[in-house]
Amino acid sequence: MSLFKYIVYTKQGIQSGQTESVDVRTLRAYLRDQGLLPVKIHKITSRPALASNIESFFTKKVRFKDFVIFCQQLSQIIDADFPVINALQNIADYSNHPTLKKVIMEIASSIEGGDSFGKALEKHSKIFPPLFISSIQAAEEGGNLAKTLNHLTYYYEEQEELRNKIISIIIYPSIVITAVLGIVIAMMVYIVPIFASLYKSFKAELPIQTKILISVSNFFITCWPFFICLILLSIGIYKLVRRTRRGGFFIDRNIFRIPLLGKILHNITLARFIRTFGTSFDAGVVITRSLENSKVVVKNRAVEEVINNIKQNLIGGNTISSGIEQGKWFFPPIIRQMIAIGELSGTLGKMLKKASKNVEDELDRIIKRLINALEPIMTIILGFLVMAISLALYLPLINISKVMFHK
Protein backbone atom coordinates (compact mmCIF):
# COMPACT_ATOMS: atom_id res chain seq x y z
CA MET A 1 0.00 0.00 0.00
CA SER A 2 1.22 3.50 -0.93
CA LEU A 3 0.09 6.91 0.25
CA PHE A 4 -1.60 9.15 -2.35
CA LYS A 5 -2.72 12.78 -2.29
CA TYR A 6 -5.77 13.65 -4.39
CA ILE A 7 -7.95 16.57 -5.48
CA VAL A 8 -11.59 15.81 -6.29
CA TYR A 9 -14.62 17.75 -7.49
CA THR A 10 -17.81 17.37 -5.39
CA LYS A 11 -21.21 19.03 -5.25
CA GLN A 12 -19.82 21.31 -2.54
CA GLY A 13 -16.79 22.27 -4.65
CA ILE A 14 -13.15 21.18 -4.94
CA GLN A 15 -11.76 19.16 -2.00
CA SER A 16 -8.41 17.54 -1.27
CA GLY A 17 -7.18 14.75 0.93
CA GLN A 18 -4.85 11.79 1.19
CA THR A 19 -5.35 8.03 1.60
CA GLU A 20 -3.64 4.70 1.05
CA SER A 21 -4.20 2.57 -2.05
CA VAL A 22 -2.52 -0.11 -4.17
CA ASP A 23 -2.10 2.19 -7.19
CA VAL A 24 -3.55 5.27 -8.92
CA ARG A 25 -6.08 3.27 -10.99
CA THR A 26 -7.53 1.54 -7.89
CA LEU A 27 -7.79 4.85 -6.03
CA ARG A 28 -9.46 6.59 -8.97
CA ALA A 29 -12.07 3.80 -9.18
CA TYR A 30 -12.65 4.02 -5.42
CA LEU A 31 -13.17 7.80 -5.53
CA ARG A 32 -15.66 7.49 -8.41
CA ASP A 33 -17.58 4.84 -6.45
CA GLN A 34 -17.88 7.40 -3.66
CA GLY A 35 -19.52 9.86 -6.07
CA LEU A 36 -16.39 12.00 -6.39
CA LEU A 37 -14.77 13.22 -9.62
CA PRO A 38 -10.96 12.90 -9.43
CA VAL A 39 -9.11 15.96 -10.74
CA LYS A 40 -5.56 15.09 -9.73
CA ILE A 41 -3.92 12.12 -7.97
CA HIS A 42 -0.24 11.78 -7.16
CA LYS A 43 1.81 9.43 -5.01
CA ILE A 44 3.48 10.91 -1.94
CA THR A 45 7.15 10.00 -2.22
CA SER A 46 8.66 8.77 1.03
CA ARG A 47 11.70 10.65 2.26
CA PRO A 48 15.08 9.04 2.80
CA ALA A 49 15.31 6.99 6.00
CA LEU A 50 18.02 9.28 7.44
CA ALA A 51 15.89 12.41 6.99
CA SER A 52 12.89 10.62 8.49
CA ASN A 53 14.93 9.44 11.49
CA ILE A 54 16.36 12.93 12.09
CA GLU A 55 12.87 14.44 11.98
CA SER A 56 11.44 11.81 14.34
CA PHE A 57 14.31 12.47 16.78
CA PHE A 58 13.51 16.19 16.97
CA THR A 59 9.72 15.75 16.81
CA LYS A 60 8.03 16.37 20.14
CA LYS A 61 6.47 13.16 21.43
CA VAL A 62 2.76 12.99 22.20
CA ARG A 63 2.60 12.01 25.86
CA PHE A 64 -0.30 10.08 27.37
CA LYS A 65 -1.30 13.23 29.28
CA ASP A 66 -1.55 15.18 25.98
CA PHE A 67 -3.76 12.45 24.56
CA VAL A 68 -6.05 12.57 27.63
CA ILE A 69 -6.45 16.36 27.21
CA PHE A 70 -7.31 15.81 23.52
CA CYS A 71 -10.02 13.29 24.54
CA GLN A 72 -11.48 15.72 27.08
CA GLN A 73 -11.62 18.58 24.57
CA LEU A 74 -13.07 16.43 21.77
CA SER A 75 -15.72 14.94 24.07
CA GLN A 76 -16.85 18.39 25.26
CA ILE A 77 -17.07 19.86 21.74
CA ILE A 78 -18.88 16.82 20.23
CA ASP A 79 -21.27 16.92 23.22
CA ALA A 80 -22.16 20.47 22.12
CA ASP A 81 -23.35 19.03 18.74
CA PHE A 82 -20.38 20.29 16.71
CA PRO A 83 -19.46 18.28 13.57
CA VAL A 84 -16.30 16.19 13.96
CA ILE A 85 -14.33 18.25 11.41
CA ASN A 86 -15.16 21.53 13.18
CA ALA A 87 -14.33 19.99 16.55
CA LEU A 88 -10.92 18.83 15.30
CA GLN A 89 -10.16 22.19 13.67
CA ASN A 90 -11.04 24.03 16.90
CA ILE A 91 -8.80 21.74 18.98
CA ALA A 92 -5.93 22.14 16.47
CA ASP A 93 -6.29 25.96 16.50
CA TYR A 94 -5.83 26.11 20.28
CA SER A 95 -3.30 23.27 20.64
CA ASN A 96 0.20 24.20 21.84
CA HIS A 97 1.60 20.77 20.96
CA PRO A 98 3.14 20.94 17.44
CA THR A 99 3.05 17.18 16.73
CA LEU A 100 -0.51 16.69 17.98
CA LYS A 101 -1.66 19.82 16.14
CA LYS A 102 -0.22 18.47 12.88
CA VAL A 103 -1.82 15.03 13.37
CA ILE A 104 -5.24 16.53 14.17
CA MET A 105 -5.10 18.65 11.01
CA GLU A 106 -4.17 15.57 8.95
CA ILE A 107 -7.15 13.67 10.42
CA ALA A 108 -9.48 16.59 9.60
CA SER A 109 -8.06 16.67 6.06
CA SER A 110 -8.65 12.91 5.66
CA ILE A 111 -12.27 13.28 6.81
CA GLU A 112 -12.78 16.14 4.35
CA GLY A 113 -11.36 13.82 1.68
CA GLY A 114 -14.07 11.25 2.35
CA ASP A 115 -12.62 9.05 5.11
CA SER A 116 -14.59 8.24 8.23
CA PHE A 117 -13.25 9.47 11.58
CA GLY A 118 -12.22 5.91 12.52
CA LYS A 119 -10.47 5.34 9.18
CA ALA A 120 -8.59 8.64 9.55
CA LEU A 121 -7.46 7.65 13.06
CA GLU A 122 -6.09 4.33 11.77
CA LYS A 123 -3.46 6.24 9.77
CA HIS A 124 -2.02 7.51 13.07
CA SER A 125 -2.09 4.28 15.09
CA LYS A 126 1.28 5.15 16.70
CA ILE A 127 -0.41 8.03 18.54
CA PHE A 128 -3.96 6.77 19.06
CA PRO A 129 -4.40 3.50 21.02
CA PRO A 130 -6.26 0.52 19.46
CA LEU A 131 -9.07 0.87 22.02
CA PHE A 132 -9.71 4.48 20.99
CA ILE A 133 -9.70 3.69 17.25
CA SER A 134 -11.93 0.60 17.45
CA SER A 135 -14.37 2.31 19.85
CA ILE A 136 -14.72 5.33 17.54
CA GLN A 137 -15.32 3.02 14.56
CA ALA A 138 -18.02 1.13 16.47
CA ALA A 139 -19.57 4.41 17.66
CA GLU A 140 -19.76 5.76 14.09
CA GLU A 141 -21.58 2.60 13.00
CA GLY A 142 -23.95 2.78 16.00
CA GLY A 143 -24.49 6.55 15.82
CA ASN A 144 -23.49 7.18 19.45
CA LEU A 145 -20.18 9.03 19.05
CA ALA A 146 -20.80 11.58 21.83
CA LYS A 147 -21.67 8.89 24.40
CA THR A 148 -18.67 6.76 23.42
CA LEU A 149 -16.31 9.74 23.67
CA ASN A 150 -17.62 10.45 27.17
CA HIS A 151 -16.91 6.84 28.18
CA LEU A 152 -13.45 6.93 26.59
CA THR A 153 -12.59 10.22 28.29
CA TYR A 154 -13.58 8.80 31.67
CA TYR A 155 -11.56 5.64 30.94
CA TYR A 156 -8.38 7.54 29.99
CA GLU A 157 -8.75 9.87 32.97
CA GLU A 158 -8.87 6.78 35.20
CA GLN A 159 -5.79 5.39 33.44
CA GLU A 160 -3.96 8.67 34.02
CA GLU A 161 -4.92 8.54 37.71
CA LEU A 162 -3.66 4.95 37.89
CA ARG A 163 -0.35 6.04 36.36
CA ASN A 164 -0.03 8.77 38.97
CA LYS A 165 -0.63 6.20 41.72
CA ILE A 166 2.12 4.00 40.32
CA ILE A 167 4.50 6.99 40.21
CA SER A 168 3.60 7.84 43.83
CA ILE A 169 4.62 4.30 44.84
CA ILE A 170 7.93 4.46 42.96
CA ILE A 171 9.10 8.03 43.59
CA TYR A 172 9.49 8.00 47.41
CA PRO A 173 11.43 4.71 47.70
CA SER A 174 13.55 5.73 44.70
CA ILE A 175 14.57 9.01 46.36
CA VAL A 176 15.33 7.33 49.70
CA ILE A 177 17.26 4.42 48.13
CA THR A 178 19.29 6.86 46.00
CA ALA A 179 20.06 8.94 49.11
CA VAL A 180 21.08 5.83 51.10
CA LEU A 181 23.33 4.55 48.30
CA GLY A 182 24.86 8.02 47.88
CA ILE A 183 25.67 8.30 51.60
CA VAL A 184 27.10 4.76 51.80
CA ILE A 185 29.23 5.19 48.66
CA ALA A 186 30.52 8.58 49.85
CA MET A 187 31.49 7.11 53.23
CA MET A 188 33.17 4.07 51.63
CA VAL A 189 35.13 6.09 49.07
CA TYR A 190 36.10 9.22 51.06
CA ILE A 191 35.62 8.80 54.81
CA VAL A 192 36.61 5.17 55.50
CA PRO A 193 40.05 5.47 53.75
CA ILE A 194 40.88 8.52 55.94
CA PHE A 195 40.16 6.55 59.11
CA ALA A 196 42.02 3.50 57.72
CA SER A 197 45.18 5.63 57.18
CA LEU A 198 44.83 7.08 60.67
CA TYR A 199 44.57 3.67 62.33
CA LYS A 200 47.48 2.36 60.24
CA SER A 201 49.72 5.15 61.54
CA PHE A 202 48.81 4.25 65.12
CA LYS A 203 49.36 0.54 64.40
CA ALA A 204 46.23 -0.07 66.44
CA GLU A 205 44.53 -3.44 66.81
CA LEU A 206 41.15 -3.01 65.08
CA PRO A 207 37.84 -4.63 66.03
CA ILE A 208 36.46 -7.19 63.56
CA GLN A 209 33.65 -4.89 62.35
CA THR A 210 36.17 -2.15 61.51
CA LYS A 211 38.37 -4.62 59.61
CA ILE A 212 35.36 -5.78 57.59
CA LEU A 213 34.36 -2.18 56.83
CA ILE A 214 37.88 -1.25 55.68
CA SER A 215 38.13 -4.43 53.55
CA VAL A 216 34.77 -3.65 51.91
CA SER A 217 35.88 -0.06 51.28
CA ASN A 218 39.19 -1.20 49.69
CA PHE A 219 37.40 -3.77 47.57
CA PHE A 220 34.86 -1.18 46.43
CA ILE A 221 37.53 1.41 45.54
CA THR A 222 39.73 -1.03 43.62
CA CYS A 223 36.93 -3.10 42.01
CA TRP A 224 34.29 -0.45 41.15
CA PRO A 225 34.61 -1.20 37.40
CA PHE A 226 33.68 -4.80 38.22
CA PHE A 227 30.49 -3.62 39.95
CA ILE A 228 29.50 -1.48 36.96
CA CYS A 229 30.21 -4.34 34.52
CA LEU A 230 28.22 -6.72 36.73
CA ILE A 231 25.23 -4.36 36.79
CA LEU A 232 25.35 -3.81 33.01
CA LEU A 233 25.77 -7.55 32.40
CA SER A 234 22.80 -8.34 34.66
CA ILE A 235 20.61 -5.81 32.83
CA GLY A 236 21.72 -7.22 29.46
CA ILE A 237 21.01 -10.83 30.48
CA TYR A 238 17.61 -9.83 31.88
CA LYS A 239 16.66 -8.10 28.61
CA LEU A 240 17.86 -11.03 26.49
CA VAL A 241 15.95 -13.55 28.62
CA ARG A 242 12.82 -11.37 28.59
CA ARG A 243 12.89 -11.19 24.78
CA THR A 244 12.63 -14.97 24.50
CA ARG A 245 9.14 -16.48 24.62
CA ARG A 246 9.82 -18.83 27.53
CA GLY A 247 11.96 -16.37 29.46
CA GLY A 248 9.47 -13.52 29.10
CA PHE A 249 6.58 -15.78 30.12
CA PHE A 250 8.51 -17.09 33.16
CA ILE A 251 9.38 -13.55 34.37
CA ASP A 252 5.86 -12.18 33.79
CA ARG A 253 4.20 -15.19 35.45
CA ASN A 254 6.40 -15.08 38.57
CA ILE A 255 6.59 -11.32 39.00
CA PHE A 256 3.19 -11.49 40.75
CA ARG A 257 4.73 -13.77 43.41
CA ILE A 258 7.12 -11.12 44.72
CA PRO A 259 6.00 -10.23 48.29
CA LEU A 260 3.90 -7.02 48.42
CA LEU A 261 5.18 -5.69 45.07
CA GLY A 262 3.64 -8.69 43.30
CA LYS A 263 0.24 -7.95 44.85
CA ILE A 264 0.41 -4.33 43.65
CA LEU A 265 1.47 -5.33 40.11
CA HIS A 266 -1.27 -7.98 39.99
CA ASN A 267 -3.96 -5.46 40.95
CA ILE A 268 -2.64 -2.86 38.48
CA THR A 269 -2.66 -5.40 35.62
CA LEU A 270 -6.09 -6.75 36.59
CA ALA A 271 -7.56 -3.23 36.84
CA ARG A 272 -6.18 -2.32 33.41
CA PHE A 273 -7.62 -5.46 31.82
CA ILE A 274 -11.12 -5.17 33.31
CA ARG A 275 -11.40 -1.41 32.74
CA THR A 276 -10.22 -1.65 29.12
CA PHE A 277 -12.37 -4.68 28.33
CA GLY A 278 -15.44 -3.05 29.92
CA THR A 279 -14.97 0.28 28.13
CA SER A 280 -14.41 -1.40 24.78
CA PHE A 281 -17.41 -3.71 25.28
CA ASP A 282 -19.67 -0.77 26.27
CA ALA A 283 -18.59 1.11 23.15
CA GLY A 284 -20.08 -1.66 21.02
CA VAL A 285 -16.77 -3.11 19.86
CA VAL A 286 -16.93 -6.81 18.90
CA ILE A 287 -16.06 -8.87 21.98
CA THR A 288 -13.02 -10.58 20.42
CA ARG A 289 -11.68 -7.17 19.38
CA SER A 290 -12.37 -5.90 22.91
CA LEU A 291 -10.17 -8.69 24.26
CA GLU A 292 -7.43 -7.73 21.78
CA ASN A 293 -7.63 -4.10 22.99
CA SER A 294 -7.27 -5.33 26.58
CA LYS A 295 -4.25 -7.45 25.64
CA VAL A 296 -2.40 -4.33 24.46
CA VAL A 297 -2.60 -2.56 27.85
CA VAL A 298 -1.69 -5.44 30.23
CA LYS A 299 1.91 -5.71 28.94
CA ASN A 300 2.38 -9.13 30.53
CA ARG A 301 2.93 -12.28 28.45
CA ALA A 302 1.39 -14.65 30.98
CA VAL A 303 -1.78 -12.54 31.15
CA GLU A 304 -1.79 -12.19 27.35
CA GLU A 305 -1.91 -15.98 27.13
CA VAL A 306 -4.91 -16.02 29.49
CA ILE A 307 -6.67 -13.46 27.25
CA ASN A 308 -5.85 -15.55 24.17
CA ASN A 309 -7.42 -18.60 25.86
CA ILE A 310 -10.59 -16.62 26.64
CA LYS A 311 -10.74 -15.47 23.02
CA GLN A 312 -10.27 -19.02 21.69
CA ASN A 313 -12.99 -20.24 24.05
CA LEU A 314 -15.38 -17.64 22.63
CA ILE A 315 -14.50 -18.56 19.04
CA GLY A 316 -15.16 -22.20 19.96
CA GLY A 317 -18.67 -21.30 21.16
CA ASN A 318 -17.99 -21.25 24.93
CA THR A 319 -18.67 -18.47 27.42
CA ILE A 320 -16.27 -15.78 28.69
CA SER A 321 -16.55 -17.10 32.25
CA SER A 322 -15.42 -20.60 31.19
CA GLY A 323 -12.28 -19.07 29.66
CA ILE A 324 -11.70 -16.99 32.78
CA GLU A 325 -11.94 -20.14 34.95
CA GLN A 326 -8.91 -21.49 33.09
CA GLY A 327 -6.96 -18.40 34.19
CA LYS A 328 -8.07 -18.53 37.83
CA TRP A 329 -4.48 -17.83 38.98
CA PHE A 330 -4.95 -14.31 37.60
CA PHE A 331 -8.66 -13.69 38.31
CA PRO A 332 -9.70 -13.65 42.00
CA PRO A 333 -12.87 -15.64 42.89
CA ILE A 334 -15.02 -12.51 43.40
CA ILE A 335 -14.10 -11.19 39.94
CA ARG A 336 -14.82 -14.56 38.30
CA GLN A 337 -18.24 -14.67 39.99
CA MET A 338 -19.13 -11.08 38.99
CA ILE A 339 -18.24 -11.69 35.33
CA ALA A 340 -20.18 -15.00 35.29
CA ILE A 341 -23.28 -13.32 36.77
CA GLY A 342 -22.99 -10.41 34.34
CA GLU A 343 -22.72 -12.77 31.39
CA LEU A 344 -25.73 -14.86 32.47
CA SER A 345 -27.94 -11.84 33.26
CA GLY A 346 -26.97 -9.85 30.14
CA THR A 347 -25.37 -7.07 32.24
CA LEU A 348 -21.73 -7.82 31.50
CA GLY A 349 -20.79 -4.17 30.89
CA LYS A 350 -22.29 -3.10 34.23
CA MET A 351 -20.59 -5.97 36.10
CA LEU A 352 -17.22 -5.19 34.50
CA LYS A 353 -17.48 -1.61 35.81
CA LYS A 354 -18.27 -2.91 39.31
CA ALA A 355 -15.42 -5.43 39.11
CA SER A 356 -13.03 -2.71 37.98
CA LYS A 357 -14.03 -0.45 40.88
CA ASN A 358 -13.61 -3.37 43.28
CA VAL A 359 -10.03 -4.00 42.09
CA GLU A 360 -9.12 -0.28 42.01
CA ASP A 361 -10.45 0.25 45.57
CA GLU A 362 -8.33 -2.69 46.76
CA LEU A 363 -5.31 -1.20 44.95
CA ASP A 364 -5.91 2.16 46.66
CA ARG A 365 -5.92 0.49 50.08
CA ILE A 366 -2.68 -1.41 49.35
CA ILE A 367 -0.94 1.76 48.08
CA LYS A 368 -1.99 3.81 51.11
CA ARG A 369 -0.76 1.12 53.50
CA LEU A 370 2.50 0.79 51.58
CA ILE A 371 3.20 4.54 51.52
CA ASN A 372 2.38 4.82 55.26
CA ALA A 373 4.73 1.91 56.03
CA LEU A 374 7.58 2.94 53.72
CA GLU A 375 8.55 6.17 55.51
CA PRO A 376 9.37 4.63 58.94
CA ILE A 377 10.92 1.51 57.33
CA MET A 378 13.24 3.57 55.11
CA THR A 379 14.14 5.86 58.01
CA ILE A 380 15.04 2.86 60.19
CA ILE A 381 17.15 1.28 57.41
CA LEU A 382 19.00 4.54 56.75
CA GLY A 383 19.58 5.12 60.47
CA PHE A 384 20.83 1.55 61.00
CA LEU A 385 23.32 1.76 58.10
CA VAL A 386 24.74 5.11 59.19
CA MET A 387 24.94 3.96 62.82
CA ALA A 388 26.65 0.66 61.91
CA ILE A 389 29.26 2.40 59.73
CA SER A 390 29.82 5.15 62.32
CA LEU A 391 30.30 2.62 65.13
CA ALA A 392 32.75 0.60 63.05
CA LEU A 393 34.73 3.78 62.32
CA TYR A 394 34.78 5.39 65.77
CA LEU A 395 35.10 2.34 68.02
CA PRO A 396 38.90 2.06 67.45
CA LEU A 397 39.26 5.78 68.27
CA ILE A 398 37.65 5.18 71.64
CA ASN A 399 40.00 2.25 72.32
CA ILE A 400 43.07 4.29 71.25
CA SER A 401 42.07 7.23 73.45
CA LYS A 402 41.65 4.89 76.46
CA VAL A 403 45.14 3.42 75.90
CA MET A 404 46.70 6.90 75.57
CA PHE A 405 44.88 8.14 78.66
CA HIS A 406 46.14 5.21 80.81
CA LYS A 407 49.73 5.79 79.60
Molecular structure report:
The protein is mostly helical and 407 residues long. Among the domains are: 1-58; 185-407, Type II secretion system (T2SS), domain F (Receptor-associated Protein), CATH 1.20.81.30. Helix content is 77%, strand content 6%. The chain is built from 17 helices and three strands. It has a three-stranded antiparallel beta sheet with strand order 2-1-3. β1 (2-10) and β2 form a beta hairpin. α7 runs antiparallel to α8 (145-202) and α8 packs antiparallel against α12 (261-282).
Topology (elements, then pairings):
Elements: E1 2-10, E2 13-21, H1 24-33, E3 37-43, H2 49-58, H3 64-79, H4 84-94, H5 98-112, H6 117-122, H7 130-142, H8 145-202, H9 208-222, H10 224-243, H11 245-254, H12 261-282, H13 287-298, H14 301-315, H15 320-326, H16 333-345, H17 348-406
Antiparallel strand pairs: 1-2, 1-3
- Architecture (CATH level 2) name of the domain at 185-407: Up-down Bundle
In DSSP terms (H or I, runs of 4 or more residues), the helix count works out at 17
Helicity range of the residues?
over 70%
CATH class of the domain at 185-407: Mainly Alpha
Q: What is the helix/strand order?
A: EEHEHHHHHHHHHHHHHHHH
Strands of the largest sheet, in order across it?
Answer: 2-1-3
- Give the DSSP E fraction (strand runs of 2 or more residues): 5-15%
Biggest pleated-sheet summary: 3 strands, antiparallel
At the third CATH level, what is the topology name of the domain at 185-407? Receptor-associated Protein
Overall mean pLDDT: 82
Number-wise, the strands total 3
Radius of gyration: 30 Å
General form: elongated
Note poorly predicted spans.
46-58
